[in-house]
Amino acid sequence: MLLPLSLLILSLSSLFFSTFSRPLSQGFSNSTLNLDDSLVYLWPLPSHFTFRDDTLSIDPDLSLSLAGIGGNSTILEEAFQRYLKIIFKHNSGDNLRRGLIYDISELKITVNSDNETLQLGVDESYSLSIGRIDGFSVIGKAQIEANTVYGALRGLETFSQLCSFNYESKTVEVYKAPWYIRDEPRFAYRGLLVDTSRHYLPIDVIKQIIDSMSFAKLNVLHWHIIDEESFPLEVPTYPNLWKGAYTKWERYTVEDARDVVNYAKLRGINVMPEVDVPGHAESWGYGYPDLWPSSSCREPLDVSKNFTFDVVSAILTEMRKIFPFELFHLGGDEVNTDCWISTPHVKQWLKDQNMTTKDAYQYFVLRAQEIAISKNWTPVNWEETFNTFSSHLNPLTVVHNWLGPGVCPKVVAKGFRCIYSNQGVWYLDHLDVPWERVYNAEPIEGIKDISKQELVLGGEVCMWGETADTSDIQQTIWPRAAAAAERLWSRKESTTAVNNTLVTLPRLQYFRCLLNRRGVQAAPVTNEYARSPPYGAGSCYKQ
Amino acid sequence: MLLPLSLLILSLSSLFFSTFSRPLSQGFSNSTLNLDDSLVYLWPLPSHFTFRDDTLSIDPDLSLSLAGIGGNSTILEEAFQRYLKIIFKHNSGDNLRRGLIYDISELKITVNSDNETLQLGVDESYSLSIGRIDGFSVIGKAQIEANTVYGALRGLETFSQLCSFNYESKTVEVYKAPWYIRDEPRFAYRGLLVDTSRHYLPIDVIKQIIDSMSFAKLNVLHWHIIDEESFPLEVPTYPNLWKGAYTKWERYTVEDARDVVNYAKLRGINVMPEVDVPGHAESWGYGYPDLWPSSSCREPLDVSKNFTFDVVSAILTEMRKIFPFELFHLGGDEVNTDCWISTPHVKQWLKDQNMTTKDAYQYFVLRAQEIAISKNWTPVNWEETFNTFSSHLNPLTVVHNWLGPGVCPKVVAKGFRCIYSNQGVWYLDHLDVPWERVYNAEPIEGIKDISKQELVLGGEVCMWGETADTSDIQQTIWPRAAAAAERLWSRKESTTAVNNTLVTLPRLQYFRCLLNRRGVQAAPVTNEYARSPPYGAGSCYKQ
């Protein structure tokens, strides 16, 4: 049972002023920095919340109490242990020995379903309440209630963001209590693309990225595993494919990929793999040169051979055993068909089939879609497929926008679902896009019909890997990915501020510093170019 | 008992050629990259080693056997668990179920002393042998023997670098076995400076840095905690001092600092704190303005007041409870004494004492030294103190070079000990210094007398924080700090190659990729400027 609605006063107004507020910062002489206490330092902002002016101390021996038919979950137990380490990062000094009495000694998590299937649209809603036992509040503990473990994970993240270490008292405190939060995401699909073909990303780094995604409540890791530069993934039935890796160490075994999927699931994050066809696939041919039209003209994949589709099918069969998510990305972008014309046997095949190169492109994409659908996948394709032959696309297709604005309106008008990644704002490798433009991008822009708006599954920021490797990927992803994450999670009304510099920037800077505290290499928010170093000495909260 | 010397053939020649070598890499079509198998991919290079041409498999259930009076150590147990996670990062798939028999199922660590005191010059030597049970070798296991747990930690690191995951067999293997390694550092002091005043570094980030230092066998974290920009450290007896922090969240409690010290100790790393006086101390006055000559002229600290030295003494008293290392850095650099002349009461005091500003600078430094020595510390000072009044410096002083080359020769000629940090090569914030210049820097350059060479304790790379915060500090430190780390650990003969591009660069690139695999944001090695992004898609091993 969720909290009674009566307790959940919609308080968007509290974003902008609060009569109960307690100063979060003291005026140190060194610093002119005083955080604006009228703001709520949660990121992304919950959909509904109220707070008052109390301060609660949190017991460093905080215990977990699990309830509901879904409460007996190792996912929750493990998440609780992770969050204990985050919340109680600082040793509380001598407080324990002083025998202090804390306001909150228990976190109760109730989960109303034991279905731990993680799929698109899984219920991520939760309610969170924190209050002391007194005349005003009768809670006396922190409580999270959710319909699924994944909602509970989102609630744990919010709880952890409410917990602040007080350096004077050396206790963890929750300010502005009691809190009543009821929260749910605006969009079901909140993605981040990583590209392990342009640069191999070690498993540890992918896990670091997954951790950081969970802090921003992103929920889909779009794993662009393979591209023309390298083929790092093991495909047991075609064991030469990963000879297209850069080196024998820059590879992912089947077990590595499963490890990533499981690690992500424990954080409520789906992994959507991509096998980009027929373009962006040159690396396939290092193991199987027959996949190239010829050794001198290597892309797109040879459309004329059944062998090509045997390999596509085998890859998807193997990947089906690894990736349980219902969405599978088949790419389909930037297909230059010149090789099909210039290679005699392909040209002859086109003639025999009475196909133009455009027909053959459509043929390839649709045949790959059929393969994916036969394996119980929902195909996702980059927008060129829609732009080129929308009337032939399988109606199940999710169209992934990237080329520019205004695509999702056309996509949903034709009844397809859409993912928004307009490169002008949500390609993270575009280093000149400031946080505010990322933040103000709106996935449903140009779509008035509510039933059509619902066809926009959400959006995704894309971290293409040409200049992003282990050394700089996190500082390129963050903090701008967080700007998109709030856009995708929070209510549209609350992300449409009159003055982002006043009401959003300080909150994003606070979140960037929170990422830093958690060991994530989030870059200064206001640098002119993404991932530039800080311009000089100073506080994290002002850079 | 260490391994019999007869087994330990000095094999520096094996650096450059090996008649027994087994290919480490296979020629994939994608890549022209084949590692030069004549090289030994250990970083830093051990002082003595031999190898042959066998390949050994390592049991994923590798067990630890501890022996010797120092073997019963939680430091070792914890380190072994850490290294298991590093060595067996990849799941071995179905191998376990296949009931494979592995060549190496036990790591035996013998530690000959139970003294776990970690001080300058602690015995870090170790021997490591790995071989199968057969006619040729009678070892049948991996064995580390060391005189202290810290030597054993160095051996564990070397062992972990010999273990490679074979993506084909999905087992961890050691190539070129059997190995016999006897190793010890060339210099006792192998440092890295981090600066938490220009940018606050969260505890998690300091721990990440400590982890990465241990991979390169660096052993001193020089913690430049405080500077003019901010004073983040808690000093219980002067509780307003850390009001000089940027914000109330950018601070270290006493417990945080102890946590750092303990974390470092578990990795064999000493923490040397710095309290830089009398310059670089403006932030002290935010809490106690009396420490400033005046509110308008704030540096150096007011030399005329006993209160100043009371505070210095109190800080050192509090820090003595936190930092057990025998070295304490008192700074002393870049002291501009103009404020002492322009502030009437200080000027009057100078006149009363019949002191010039230079006398007063000396007076301040020497008085601070006395305070440190009275607390059983060995003082370290930046070279300006030596350059200005060497004949008055306490003979215990360790002089820390930074301004340029040629300083340590003068320092040791006068009988002082020296730490080498020539800014032209070992200041990591100098982004235009390529790895090779870092590597070729030689701490004892210009010192011919061996007894004088021994006064050079070692060296330190300095990561000043003006443009290095959480987002970019690791990519600025690495890989160049590793170049210095090998210079400081390995034998001079083995780091003086005729052609670094052929024999050292591939090894450093390999180590950079090893850091990446362990989640450390080490930047491409050959970028023109440090911490630049990779110039384009490609293999870690070639960037």
UniProtKB/TrEMBL annotation, chains A, B:
InterPro entries: Beta_hexosaminidase_sua/sub, GH, Glyco_hydro_20_cat, Hex-like_dom2, HEX_eukaryotic_N. SUPFAM superfamilies: (Trans)glycosidases, beta-N-acetylhexosaminidase-like domain. Residues 42-162 form the Beta-hexosaminidase eukaryotic type N-terminal domain. Residues 1-21 form the signal peptide. GO terms for biological process: carbohydrate metabolic process; glycosaminoglycan metabolic process. It catalyses: Hydrolysis of terminal non-reducing N-acetyl-D-hexosamine residues in N-acetyl-beta-D-hexosaminides. Residues 187-491 form the Glycoside hydrolase family 20 catalytic domain. CDD domains: GH20_HexA_HexB-like (cd06562). Belongs to the glycosyl hydrolase 20 family. This is Beta-hexosaminidase.
